[in-house]
């Protein structure tokens, strides 16, 4: 879910994300790891990038997990709650936004591995209620965002109603209903276009095949088998005790005028408005466990996730580091320090990124508690990409991208 918002409350829901600037100079970063393991490559570079990110106008806090084999490192900077001063931590819950798409994709890919559906099947053969104009799009095209199905989040009627009441109740069928009368935006398979409706369709297909609510399917197929105790799809906007608070922030005024403190938007949105496309909650710890196990093949043969023939040029919302390509509910990020497979997430109060190497042995998770995208916060976005890139370098055992280039040249 990519809807952006701004404070104060009267305009918070209507515009691009962000409320007031906050400098957390007194909140230095810290790292935790097993004392017996080797130092993290590029640790100082990563800490510096994190400090820059949460500087003036940046998010209140950031947590980064880097893991290479059994060596796991957690670095934090800033605050999970600016009122209490609680520090960021990888064990605290936050909204994972569009990273949820990887999980809905995982469910359909698992069903395909069990022979319960074909990735080449037209969605009309699996979901009788799908609009007839969309029926020729296949399951794989839905997962890759090459289906042509229009995005309900861009629909003017949905936006108007959402602005009026971000806690409004809508079923998945009602979400599809906003664009059900629209034709496909293009012939299926002909191009790439990110659409949240794709993953609403994916969730409904899972329900149709398994005959139970998607939230239960998520637990049965993914969370329980992978021991993700803090990962679920909530039915309300409430969050577990000790959660990472999400904030609307905006850069300092060009005039240097004083700005208001960040506005807490953690509980603003009913997660049902994103459902299988972006309504999930989790922790950085759980996300790290998931992406590592997923790429390692804990759910099914992971070669389907990294097959080079299954990718087309395209990035998520927001784009991730390096060169982005879209696969089956996962993106490939080709960076100066190596290639990882994962996803980004972005919604009011939160921005997420996770990725892992092809075999799942090297992984990164980056969680920040404000919404950051190229359009609403370009400087913050550049700083965020710097953190993500450095985290990948560190996971690959490289001090920095420049060091990687020097090594390659020699």
Describe the structure.
- The chain is of the alpha+beta class and about 400 residues long.
- It has a single domain, classed as 3-Layer(aba) Sandwich (Beta-lactamase).
- It contains 13 helices and 14 strands.
- It has helices at about 10, 45-55, 100-115, 140-145, 155-165, 170-175, 195-210, 215-225, 275-280, 285-295, 305, 380-395, 400-410, and strands at about 30-35, 60-70, 70-80, 85, 95, 245-250, 265, 280-285, 310-315, 325, 330-335, 340-345, 350-355, 360-370.
- Strands 1, 2, 3, 4, 9, 10, 11, 12, 13 and 14 form a ten-stranded antiparallel sheet that branches. The protein has a two-stranded antiparallel sheet with strand order 5-8.
- Strand 2 (about 60-70) and strand 3 (about 70-80) form a beta hairpin.
- Helix 3 (about 100-115) packs across helix 7.
